[in-house]
Amino acid sequence: MTDHSLTTWQRELRAQFPIITANPGVAYLDSAATAQKPQPVLDAVMTYLTGENANAARGTYPWANRTTTRVEQARDRLRAFLGDPEPDRSGVHFVSGATEGLRAVARDWLAPQLRDGDEIVVAHADHQANILPWQEVAALARARGDRVTLIPMPYDAAHDYDAGRLADLLTPRTRMIAATHVHHVYGNDMHVSRLRAAAGPGVPICLDAAQSIGHLPVSVAGLDADFLVFSGHKAMALPGTGAIWARNRRGPLFRPGGWPGTPNTAGIVSLTAALDWLDAAGVDRIAAWTRDLGARLTGALAGLNGYEVLGCRTSLAADSTVQRRQGIVTFRHRTIGSHDLGFILAADGFLVRADGHCQGEQGEKTTSVRVSLHVHNTVGEIDRLVDRLAALNDA
Ligand code: PMP
């Protein structure tokens, strides 16, 4: 695609976000926290709620039957979105988001299998949603007298997982590798496809895809993970949506514990619409667009000595061929506190995230400012942000 047609493509997509077009003075730079919703997603929800809202899997009348069908179709839609090569063999379970999904995999699937001497690999610099559940099931096992050990995932100097060192850490008692596809602070693609080679054929892998779905193409065919969990609200669906995709090959069939109750039907409808929208927009183009904007920001920050950018250093060099930040750039000012910087930027309409980003215990200890991008963001927004940051450079 030429630059010109890419710009036209982006402008047409940006125009589909009502909250963005209604607020021309605002640059929404917090899509990693939650994504804004394009009009077709909102329309799909409204059409459903005003046309055939009913409960699922309980009905004897058309609205209820159609709702049941919509939930089933949403499962197939997700499998197709993920390029599932064996859709008959995978399960799709709707949850409220990645936090609930990861906890369900840990509690409902892994915990009953854990025995004395077992080990779980956990990535301590990742999001707490992918750390706490594994700590919790290990603690539960210990409480009943089974020693279950958490093995820290090794990282390399570029904040990637160190697959070579990981291979050395694995033993016949490793029962799970809990990993993340795109890091929510550093923005790097963690190259999770290398984990399977390191793990060998037998160890289950659970992947937190909260920051990759909708941001870059995700194919379960290439990943050979057993579980992939994400938040629909970060992928342009409604809040309170998310899913566990489970392949069920290494160990028993995954079944969420407890009585499921009424599903979030409107949320599930919104997820189908969001996946349709993302596919039509082209996730590969979205990835290219947000990567370029991120590179523009990191490039400009590299020239401002008042700021420190977190994450992989090599990707910051002007001539770097390593540009792996997937639309997430996190930094701090050398003297202005990150919360203060967040307020200063918000006053000028730059909506960023400024805190510790729920990062795990061995990650960055202090707060920072995270700019996270999506397809509605523009070069103009980045340049205005850089101007504002430059004006604060010597503060
Ligand atoms: N994992 C990652 C990598 C995340 O960025 C987030 C949200 N910040 C979560 C998990 C948790 O997602 P949710 O709050 O939607 O459950």
CATH class of the largest domain: Alpha Beta
Q: What compounds sit in this structure?
A: 4'-deoxy-4'-aminopyridoxal-5'-phosphate
Give the strand tally. 13
Strand content: 5-15%
Secondary structure category: alpha/beta
Q: Quickly count the domains.
A: 2
Main pleated sheet: 7 strands, mixed
CATH fold naming of the largest domain: Aspartate Aminotransferase, domain 2
Summarize model confidence as the mean pLDDT: 93
Strand order of the biggest β-sheet: 2-8-7-6-5-3-4
The poorly predicted ranges are: none
CATH architecture of the largest domain: 3-Layer(aba) Sandwich
Coarse shape: globular
Order of helices and strands: HHEHHEHEHEHEHEHEEHHEEHEEEH
- Kindly report the name of the CATH homologous superfamily of the largest domain: Type I PLP-dependent aspartate aminotransferase-like (Major domain)
Give the N-terminus to C-terminus distance in angstroms.
Answer: 41 Å
Oligomer: single chain
Work out the helix count: 13
Proportion of helical residues: 25-40%
Radius of gyration: 21 Å
